Amino acid sequence: MQLKISILLLHIFLFGNSHHVFSSEILGTEKMYAKEYFANGNLKAEGWKSMDTKTDFWVFYHENGKVASKGHFRSNQRDGYWYFYDESSNVLKEGHFENGSAENWWIFYDIANQSKSKFQYKDNKKNGFALLYKNRKLVKAQEYLNNKKTGEWTSILAFKLDNPNVSLR
After folding, report:
1. Is residue 95 part of a domain?
2. What are the tens digits of pLDDT across the range 9-19?
3. What sections of the chain are H helices per DSSP?
């Protein structure tokens, strides 16, 4: 085992390029931790692979070194809750993926984080309700079907009257 570790480290030192992979094969598993780099040498992405397939937790970076996005993969597809950031580390959006498709509620922020919107997704399309906020106050509700707006309310009272059995949670 010591020899395998020495050979792996020597290989990384001598033949290192834009992809570094630290394998847990030495420990008897197929899972490995991988790092990818931009041409300028900055870290581009890091996370777990199994048989060249992204799995588990990954972090992607902007060229300036700040986090661009982070979340989980299952079989090379985004899966679970993800966060996306701009180059100044402000959260741009966050939401759920299932097998690579946007699903459930997604939250979008403006750069100053003064307003935000929440949209329901199904199969990567707006399907369901959207809530638009300004200064932390709900100012509008909308309804979507396959990315097309089918309804809009500028009063929460009007929305509740038209949709008495809908929960927006």
Report:
1. no
2. 334 433 444 44
3. 2-15, 156-162
Q: Using pLDDT thresholds of 50, 70 and 90, give the confidence band for residue 169.
A: low
Phi, psi of 11 (to 5 degrees): -60, -45
Answer whether residue 37 shows pLDDT above 70.
yes
The whole domain housing 73 covers 1-89
Residues 6+ apart with CB under 8 A from 153: 140, 141, 142, 159, 162
Distances (CA, A) of 69 to 13, 44, 59: 29, 11, 6
Do 70 and 43 fall within a single domain? yes
In the chain, beta strands by DSSP E? 19-23, 31-37, 43-50, 53-61, 67-74, 77-78, 80-85, 91-98, 101-109, 115-122, 125-134, 137-145, 148-153
Mean residue pLDDT of the chain comes to: 84
Please name the residues in contact with 167: beta carbons below 8 A apart, sequence gap of 6 or more: none
Phi first, then psi, for residue 37 (nearest 5°) are -125, 145
